[in-house]
Amino acid sequence: MNLNYLFDPAHWNLEDGSIPLLILSHLWYVVLALIIGTIIALPIGLYIGHTGRGSFLAINAGNAGRSLPTLGLLMLMVTLLGLGLTPVLIALTVLVIPPILTSAYAGMRSLDPRVVDAARGMGMRPWQVLTKVELPMALPVLISGFRSAALQVVATATVAAAVGLNGLGRLLIDGLAVNDYSRVLAGAIVVAVLAVLLDLVLALAQRWIVSPGLR
Amino acid sequence: MSSYLSNNWDTILTALRQHIWLALVPVVLGFVIALPIGYLGVRFPRLYHPLVNVCGVLYSIPSLALFVFLPVLLGTKILSPLNIVVALTIYTVALLSRTVADGLRSVDPLVVESATAMGYRRLRRLVDVQLPVALPVILAGLRVATVANISLVSVGALIGVGGLGQLFTRGFQLFYLEPIIVGIVLSVALAGIADLTIVLIQRWITPWTRFQGRTA
After folding, report:
1. Whose CA is closest to B91, among A66, A185, A95, A202?
2. Which long-range CB contacts under 8 A does A131-136 form with residues at least 24 apart?
3. Residue B39: DSSP 8-state
4. Matching CDD domains, A to Z (chain B) (predicted)?
5. Which of A84, B52, B76, B103 sits in a 20 to 30 Å window from B132, CA-based?
6. Cβ neighbours of residue A186 closer than 8 Å, sequence gap 6 or more
7. CATH number, position A81
8. Where does residue A13 rank: exposed (0-12), middle (13-18), buried (19+ CB within 10 A)?
9. ipTM score here?
């Protein structure tokens, strides 16, 4: 086991199967899953948090989602829909929804109700209360849920390679298939570094987005 | 579906049994290892942030990579269940060390001071006062770790040892939906039962949490 594969310049050119291209396809799965998951989960979480209706769903979505085996879901979707981007996105989006939904709900619930009352008392419309008061104040909790979703999806997107798709899992699966542990090590390191970098970017984004008054 | 179930009953039961072992042994081992590590993170506050960061990085290693590597590191055979057990134990430790530290930090310092004033020594105070008060937080982490482990075991099927995950790979290779669906349903059910069990244990060993609403 060594780092030869990782540091071999031949694996860093832009040909098919090179490390940069695998990183790109990996990030593509991750970003798409995060966007679709957010579009689905955020409004639901905010709605449940805002109205308090359906709290049971929000609290239990987290554990229910975690218990779905991503590999099984992915293989089920590929068997049903055929090989392609859609089955991967479905499997990864299902992974992303619970933490975002739960944290959107938790963020809204963590608000001091007096602040919301004050906003209403000042004459804000429900939509203004949501976008100017509730959402900004719920952001720290919400973003921490988003960060844990991102970490999870970066590590899990490797299973896409198990059904013959791209992403950094290719290095793991192909390396294992030909007993090339140097390649497997390269895959593991790149995924871990990617996860840490992504978390760092999101942490910076958090500092930038969250109102200074809430820090 | 019913013919698949009746024809493959033994295979399914064997996979289920293996799945339970592979998921739960790491939970127990990980919990036992995480307790002292989490405690160190509280006893020496300077260790807390490094602990959180190391745990975060450990948890971001893809399970597939860990499953593949451990045979090389441990000298075990690639098909040895030990690889899965060690890998999942590492994840459990990564998850629970932080939870244990957070749980112990959440204990009201006044409670700890009162215990000290009543003459509790450090170890007795930890076992009799701090740990019980921290239990709700620790058990919440244990629920997450247990459910995560149960769904992670299946990834082991890609290296040949994965409990119910083997039903996924078989169904996938044969282009056959039944085993995949049975595997998913059993895996989710197992996670639900394990989760519920911990909730019931929690209600039983921390009866005071049920009355919090009335006293506060």
Report:
1. A66
2. A134/A46, A134/A49, A134/A50, A134/A108, A135/A46, A136/A210, A136/A211, A136/A214
3. H
4. TM_PBP2 (cd06261)
5. B52
6. A3, A5, A6, A11, A19, A171, A175
7. 1.10.3720.10
8. exposed
9. 0.86
> Helix (H, G, I), strand (E, B), or coil: what is residue A168?
coil
What six digits make up the tokens of A78?
Answer: 């590929």
Cβ–Cβ under 8 Å, residues B150 and B191: yes
Q: Are B69 and A175 in contact (CB under 8 A)?
A: no
Q: How far B88 CA sits from the closest chain A CA (Å)?
A: 14
A-chain CB neighbours of B184 within 8 Å are 68-69, 72-73, 76
Angle between helices B9-43 and B48-60 (to 10 degrees): 160
Interface test with B, best of A75, A180, A200 (most B CBs within 10 A): A75
Quote the CATH superfamily of domain B2-209. MetI-like (1.10.3720.10)
Q: Quick one: tokens of B84?
A: 């899965």
Nearest beta carbon to residue A76 from set B57, B180, B188: B180
Q: Name the nearest CA neighbour of A73 among B184, B3, B100, B128.
A: B184
Please count the structural domains in chain A. 1
Rg of chain B's alpha carbons, rounded to an integer?
20
Q: Are A117 and A59 in contact (CB under 8 A)?
A: no
Residues sharing a CB contact under 8 Å with residue A21, sequence separation 6 or more, in sequence order: A14, A15, A166
Q: Which domain holds residue A145?
A: 4-214
Token pair listed for A102: 């739960």
B184 and A159: CB-CB below 8 Å?
A: no
Q: Do B191 and A66 touch (CB under 8 A)?
A: yes
User: Rounded to 5 degrees, what are φ and ψ at A2?
Assistant: -155, 180
Strands (E), A42-94: none
Kindly report whether the global pTM for this prediction surpasses the value 0.90: no
Note down pLDDT in tens along chain A; length 215 residues.
688 888 888 888 877 788 999 999 999 999 999 999 999 999 999 888 888 888 888 777 777 778 889 999 999 999 999 888 999 999 999 999 988 998 999 898 888 889 989 999 999 998 898 888 888 888 988 998 899 899 889 989 999 998 888 999 999 999 888 988 889 889 988 998 898 899 899 989 988 988 887 76
